[in-house]
Amino acid sequence: MNKIKIAPSLLSANFLNLEKDLIECINAGAEILHFDIMDGHFVPNITFGPMLLKSLKPLMKNILADVHLMIENSSNYIPVFAEYGADMISVHVENNKHLYRVLQLIKSFKIKAGIVLNPLTPLEYAYQAAEYSDFILLMSVNPGFGGQDYISSFEKKCLTLKNYLIKNNLKNVEIEVDGGIKADNVNKAVENGANIIVSGSGIFNGNIKENILKLRENANKAISKFK
User: Fold this and answer.
1) Are 104 and 132 in contact (CB under 8 A)?
2) CB 144 within 8 A of CB 106
3) pLDDT tens digits for 7-59?
4) Beta pairing partners, 9
5) In order of start, what are the domains of the chain with their CATH numbers?
6) What is the DSSP string of the chain?
7) What are phi and psi of 113, to 5 degrees?
8) Phi and psi at residue 58, in whole multiples of 5°?
9) Is the pLDDT of residue 227 over 60?
10) Catalytic residue flag (residue 39)
11) Taking 70 as the threshold, does the pLDDT of residue 148 lie above it?
């Protein structure tokens, strides 16, 4: 099992105090900061763009910038996100016809490349792209808005993917989960193979440090149960 990594999602942070929230996440030991980039076309919401990453990157010591592109024509924006400090970029299989080309473009900037699958997107897409990916993000909500309820059918899908990766000697490909993850259900995600844990309201609603520590504690307990 890959090491558990906690990735607070900026979508749920306090935008009047982003620097404060970011520093609290870093001090609490978060390994990754998750940027949900939405354009109002591929998903029904608009969030932020590369300038936010550029502004926050100087503060992000020892924490990776994970850019999740929920946008049309995502390949057009990969170079600028890479320039402004992205360490990981993921794109949706649903709107990238030339997925291999897009993954190679991301890797050309010496950063990690990932694919994303919506809850009802068949896993066959992941099977085809896994050997060209550093990580696979499985959505456990329908993308577009923060604060949604976790879709439990994610678990079977995640375990099936994890077993496929093990069987095909792709153990280094990490599984990321995003959507409705909190301290009381993170064990389900980890027990079924996920190790990169994205959480928005589960971290930023309340005490950030305490929420991250509890999330990690419950995730680490679940590792021993993974089969």
Assistant:
1) yes
2) no
3) 999 999 999 999 999 999 999 999 999 999 998 888 878 899 999 999 999 99
4) 34
5) 5-223 (3.20.20.70)
6) -PPPEEEEBGGGS-TTSHHHHHHHHHHTT--EEEEEEEBSSSSS-B---HHHHHHHGGG-TT-EEEEEEESTTGGGTHHHHHHTT-SEEEEEGGG-TTHHHHHHHHHHTTSEEEEEE-TTS-THHHHHHGGG-SEEEEESS-TT-SSPPP-TTHHHHHHHHHHHHHHTT-TTSEEEEESS--TTTHHHHHHTT--EEEESHHHHSS-HHHHHHHHHHHHHHHHTT--
7) -110, 135
8) -60, -20
9) no
10) no
11) no
* CA–CA distance, 134 with 118 (Å, rounded to integer): 18
Q: Would strands 112-117 and 135-139 be described as parallel, antiparallel, or unpaired?
A: parallel
Q: Side chain identity at 66, as an amino acid letter?
A: D
**What is the share, in percent, of the chain residues with pLDDT greater than 70?**
96
Task: Tell me whether residue 184 is one of the annotated catalytic residues.
Answer: no
Question: What tens digit of pLDDT does each residue of 186-223 get?
Answer: 999 999 999 999 999 999 999 999 999 999 999 999 98
Find the catalytic residue in 134, 149, 178, 184: 178
Of 36, 66, 87, 134, the active-site residue reads 36
Q: Which range among 116-125, 134-143, 180-189, 203-212 shows the weakest confidence by mean pLDDT?
A: 134-143
